[in-house]
Amino acid sequence: MRETMAIAKRELLGYFATPLAYVFIVIFLFTMGVFTFYIGNFYQNERAELTAFFGFHPWLYLFLIPAISMRLWAEERKAGTLELLLTLPIPLYAAVLGKFLAAWAFAGLALILTFPIWITVNYLGDPDNGVIFASYIGSFLMAGAFLAIGSCVSAMTSSQVIAFVVSVVVCFLFTVAGTPIVIDVVSTIFPLAIVNAISSFSFLTHFASITAGVIDLRDLIYFLSLIALFLFATAVLIDLRKAG
Amino acid sequence: MPHPVPPLQFRMIEIEGISKHFGPFRAVDGISLSVARGEVLGFLGPNGAGKSTTMKMITGFLAPSAGRISVCGFDVAQQPLEAQKRIGYLPEGAPAYHDMTPAQFLSFIAEVRGIDGEARERQIANAVKRTELASVLEQPIETLSKGFKRRVGLAQAILHDPPVLIMDEPTDGLDPNQKHTVRQLIREMASAKAIIVSTHILEEVEAMCTRAVIIDKGHLVADGPVVGRDVQFTVTRGGTQEAITAEAGRLDAVFRSLTTDEAAS
Ligand SMILES: Nc1ncnc2c1ncn2[C@@H]1O[C@H](COP(=O)(O)OP(=O)(O)OP(=O)(O)O)[C@@H](O)[C@H]1O
Ligand SMILES: [Mg+2]
Fold it and tell me: What is the pTM of this model?
């Protein structure tokens, strides 16, 4: 635990020691705003809800989250600090978890900074704040799942560019698996059981059910087990590198 | 054997027949040696000989393809954390987190190693003093000169006063004064520790080592104690052993003769 926290602290320090954190947060808030107000027609809808805002999250995360996760391991490998890190007396899980938690906390911070939108919608009307709160939790969980995938991809390469591109592609597959287009296409070929299996692997399916206002245990378990699975895979990949 | 085998209880590093293969390539091919407390072992050898690879295996960064290593009685493959607690390691090129200052970096290392409170401050202060880092403590590591970066790496390695020190080219990139200081530091620490240093500066052998080995193409070709200013090598070639003494100032000729096809001149 001590090691996990020490690693997480160092990582967070690293985010804010460079302009990276600030640039990321500004871009995050800017794109969230643009999508919600212009593309999502927030005002014209004249409805006191944040459905459009949350609806864009999976698609924005697709590019923004890999930008955080790409450096997790690729950068350490490139800079040679991986050798330092892995020869310190730290259990591997602590290094993997510490780095992930720092990235997740950072993504959480960016998400929290969107609170003016929540305030605005309360000022303009009378939204269901329970739904909005659940949606924030769902969005945070989904960010964690994107990050865990990104961590795993980053562990495979010393190139941040490759880590970014591959993460986007993998996250894209996890996202689109639940879109109506994919479901329609898949259901013309496969029986219903397979269609359901594919769409149940999608971020969209689970995120949509949370943003509807209920945090179902199944959705929680889905995101948390996806995170656990990909962090475990990260540790396995880092450990494999030892064998040369 | 020209030098006595150290008593078992003092063997801090034991390496038994380790090899490292990268695909078909054998970077390290059957090296065995043990290092006792009080010894400063110099790793000599041409570029690509396998010195760094051997160090990476001792410190648990790479797993050997064959053979076993123990540090202070702990098998590096079975109990890596116990071994790593007892090792201070300066990797090749002295990697460090460039976005941190030396003060933050050393504090992070201390925290990870479980050094708390008053002990943390004392041990960081001690490492800073020994590596003469005080003037750059609050400057981001990425803006430090090469020599200072190396000293940050050294400070990190000695911070927890480890019984085993592994240093890959610790004096590379240092100015002559710092080279002198670091050699002196290594000599001072020698009595209580087992130390392995690699170097391409052959004069450093007599200046700080009590023993030297020459590694070539993954094999250990010569091993011997430093006596006065001479190195009394036992050379293993083609299954036969012969004693060769490298007298003061002649080490480079012996090195060449053992690691190239040229005859010693
Ligand atoms: N990950 C790797 N994959 C493939 N080959 C490797 C790898 N790491 C090292 N090697 C090879 O192993 C050999 C030994 O490398 P090593 O770094 O141990 O040499 P060295 O003795 O430290 O050399 P130098 O004096 O230049 O530091 C080299 O030929 C190197 O190219
Ligand atoms: Mg080397």
Answer: 0.90
